[in-house]
Design brief:
Elements: E1 5-9, H1 36-48, E2 51-56, H2 65-77, E3 81-86, H3 94-107, E4 111-116, H4 126-139, E5 142-148, H5 156-159, E6 168-171
Parallel strand pairs: 1-2, 2-3, 3-4, 4-5, 5-6
Helix pairs in contact: 1-2, 2-3, 3-4
The structure holds iron/sulfur cluster.
Length: 185
């Protein structure tokens, strides 16, 4: 039996934006959200099944902030490393950004992954990305910016946008990011 398991957890298929590469942006996609009690039970079952890392990912998890906070608390209680993948739509002012980052950290979030790409930034101001990163840094929450790219020339202006001191990791377009093995240590 694999004693070191990690899963991607799609709490809903809903997103507030439409990235061209994502199934969550498909108009034909049924918009659904998991029942919270059921989701809590699944996370507990995952702990029993030796899952050590859960990445809450597409759709946009933080459309359901209160629910995700509860699920993070279940992860924390069960010793599960947790990550939230977000487009950063919520990071509109420094104060509300700090409040949300603080709430996530208190709930037990281990890492915030903030998505950045030519697709995402058609809908979300890049200053939101900076704000989410800076708030995470200030409040001591592990984080990184995930630069989603297909390595085309269209991405050149985005690649040249560096934020001093902020870790950026390039990834290929995909909808369900997976926790790298080193993240769940
Ligand atoms: S990639 Fe993320 S932000 Fe973009 S549509 Fe899909 S879930 Fe939403």
């Amino acid at each position: 039996m694999n004693s070191f398991r990690k899963i991607a957890f799609g709490y809903s298929t809903q997103c507030n934006i439409k990235c061209g590469h994502c199934v969550a942006a498909d108009d034909d996609q049924k918009k659904a959200k998991m029942d919270l009690a059921r989701a809590r039970a699944i996370v507990s079952e995952m702990a029993s099944a030796h899952v050590k890392g859960i990445s809450f990912t597409a759709g946009e998890p933080l459309l359901f902030l209160n629910d995700i906070v509860e699920l993070l608390e279940v992860c924390k209680k069960n010793g599960i490393y947790s990550r939230v993948v977000t487009n950063g739509f919520w990071a509109e002012t420094p104060r509300c950004t700090d409040d949300i980052v603080s709430e996530l950290k208190t709930a037990g979030l281990a890492q915030l992954r903030i998505s950045y790409s030519r697709w995402h930034q058609k809908h979300v101001d890049r200053e939101n990305i900076v704000s989410a990163a800076q708030s995470s840094k200030k409040l001591g929450l592990d984080y990184f910016i995930s630069f989603v790219t297909d390595f085309s020339k269209q991405d050149a202006p985005h690649e040249q946008y560096h934020i001093p001191g902020v870790p950026v990791i390039s990834t290929a377009p995909r909808c369900l990011p997976i926790i790298p093995p080193t993240d769940a240590t």
